[in-house]
Amino acid sequence: MGRPAPYTGAMASPSSPAIAFDSKLWPSGTLWQPSATLSACIRATMVRNTLGSSLTDAQRVNHFPAAPLCSLSWWFTGSSLALGASSDGSDEGQPLDETAAKTPLPGRWVLSGPQTRPTATWCPGPVHAMMVLIPPDALHALTHLQPEALMDRMVDAATVLPPDWLPMLQAVQNAGDDAQALQLLEEFLEPRWQACRPAQPVAWQRYSDWVTHLAQRAAVSGPGRSLRQLERRIKRWSGLPLRELRVMGRSEDAFFATAALATQSSDKLDWAQIAADSGYSDQSHLIRTTRRITGLTPEALGKGIQHHESFWAYRLWM
């Protein structure tokens, strides 16, 4: 099996001429694609490396949208703190920026479940970290963990993953570079995934592809074909109800449609047309959903992606 390669398809970087990114942005992220045989097991891998940088407190914030994926994270150098994550709820409604309450992450290696709201972390200093994005149904097949139990949570991976995963976690931690870390991870997952993967796994490109596949799989899995039984299967595999998964799929489709239009024209974007093309009832519906998924309006999100370092993960996803 060859080494995984950096994703070079739809990824844009701060130096790309397609979209006018602020020239002061730190080009510190890489999106890696998995090997073909693991494309239904690993959605993508994000690597963040700010070693050698002198970022401000605001630039060391990391913004992430609500998403149906689980993630497994390593910090090779440096550390991160969760923003706005106090257990007593005292920071409810507080902005997810460098002024928010900061909470230590639960362990050296962190497993996160599907997120129904936008999240953010903050790095006290330079960091080199890796986050592997895993569909919840794949994580369930590999570990028998229930995605619903991980909903909106970050947990110590060493305490919840099967014991035979722990040597792999340490081996990846000790890897010499990003490519070797990903190769070790894939060599570990390959035989396990081949033993438990669905008969027809989906090699998906968008959330909406995956949601359609889950619905089709639920329709032919086990006894019972009622809508309620299908939705129960989907929620057991993904942790989220089908309706919420479709909302996230539509939101990602709008995100890519906006990015595509931004590369074609410098004119002000037609949000009403983007809403119609992405399946929203109107522009207000698009704005409400985008705010719920990202915490920002579409226009504010676009400005953040173009001008603020803390939105590096969104730029990678483009």
From TrEMBL:
One of its GO terms (molecular function) is DNA-binding transcription factor activity. It comes from the Bacteria. SUPFAM superfamilies: Homeodomain-like. Keywords: DNA-binding, Transcription, Transcription regulation. The keyword Oxidoreductase does not apply. Residues 86-113 are annotated as: Disordered. Residues 226-304 form the HTH araC/xylS-type domain. This is AraC family transcriptional regulator. It comes from Rhodoferax aquaticus.
